[in-house]
Amino acid sequence: MLTPRVLVTAAAEATIDALRDEHGPLMFHQSGGCCDGSSPMCFPAGEFRVGANDVWLGRIHGCNFFMSAAQFEYWKHTQLTVDVTKGRGASFSLEIPLGVRFLIRSRLFTEAEEQYMAPVYDGEAYLTRPAEA
Length: 133
What we know:
Elements: E1 6-8, H1 10-23, E2 26-30, E3 40-44, E4 54-60, E5 63-68, H2 69-75, E6 78-86, E7 100-108, H3 111-114, E8 121-122, H4 123-128
């Protein structure tokens, strides 16, 4: 079994469900430090343009999750878990009007996990790959 690079808590899944009901399909991009620090930002799918300078890390609760390639170089040995907490962040992410904000909890992969890492794709390659890839 492949080691996932990004996970999601049940609380964050409930928030994603509420946002999906209102906005339709969603995507995430891990902020690299502007606005709310380094927070996962939620957008309607396709609203945030990703390309070759972004990395696709996986899917959480049906949503693609991306981050910049430069940031991935620092975080590639870290498993990310998207969670949610009360409080308004200072970002453009969709959950902000709900009085909550997404956040990242992280931990380093074990040596055993690193042997079976899920693949990553640059954002441009991911968006143009065949559906079965």
